[in-house]
């Protein structure tokens, strides 16, 4: 994997800061259950991503045994987990219209083919052209 250029790492950090500021402004301007659901779900998804990054030394060697199959399975699992997270927060806060459907299995049925296709394409491209972590983010 290529090493990320320093400017690209700073761009990722600036993008995260901008996104957090936009979420904060959105929540202050409209404290609806839908906005609160989006803020909590997006921040929780980001923290989950950071947790995966922090623990990569534990699971990455296992994934490297079969890189295409492992990365595809991990990507699909993570997509399903994040969809479940958004639906759980939406249900807990009584919001509507955040997740694709109120039934988790129907939600997965609607979204997983797209996620699986995107993950499969990304893994195939990443296998040919190894992009840095900052470029992927």
Give a quick set of tags describing it.
137 residues, mainly alpha, 6 helices, 81% helix, globular
How does this model look, in words?
This protein has 137 residues and is mainly alpha-helical. The protein is 81% helix and 0% strand. It has six helices and no strands. It has helices at 6-29, 33-54, 56-64, 67-93, 104-128, 133-136. The longest helix is centred in the middle third of the chain and has 27 residues, at 67-93. It starts with 5 loop residues before the first helix and ends with a helix. The model has no long low-confidence stretch (mean pLDDT 85).
Structural classification: mainly alpha
String of helices and strands: HHHHHH
- In total, the number of strands is 0
How many strands, which pairing sense, and closed or not: the largest β-sheet?
none
Question: Can I get a quick summary?
Answer:
The chain is mainly α.
Task: Outline the fold blueprint.
Layout: H1 6-29, H2 33-54, H3 56-64, H4 67-93, H5 104-128, H6 133-136
Helix pairs in contact: 1-2, 2-4, 4-5
């Amino acid at each position: 994997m290529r090493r990320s250029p320093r400017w690209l790492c700073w761009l990722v950090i600036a993008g995260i800061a901008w996104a957090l500021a936009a979420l904060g402004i959105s929540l202050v301007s409209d404290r609806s259950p839908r906005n609160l659901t989006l803020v909590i779900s997006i921040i929780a998804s980001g923290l989950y991503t950071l947790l995966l990054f922090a623990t990569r030394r534990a699971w990455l060697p296992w994934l490297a045994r079969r890189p295409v199959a492992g990365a595809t399975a991990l990507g699909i699992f993570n997509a399903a987990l994040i969809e479940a997270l958004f639906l759980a927060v939406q249900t807990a806060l009584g919001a509507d219209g955040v997740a694709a459907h109120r039934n988790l299995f129907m939600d997965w049925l609607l979204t997983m083919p797209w996620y699986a296709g995107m993950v499969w394409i990304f893994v195939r491209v990443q296998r040919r052209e190894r992009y840095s972590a900052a470029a992927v983010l």
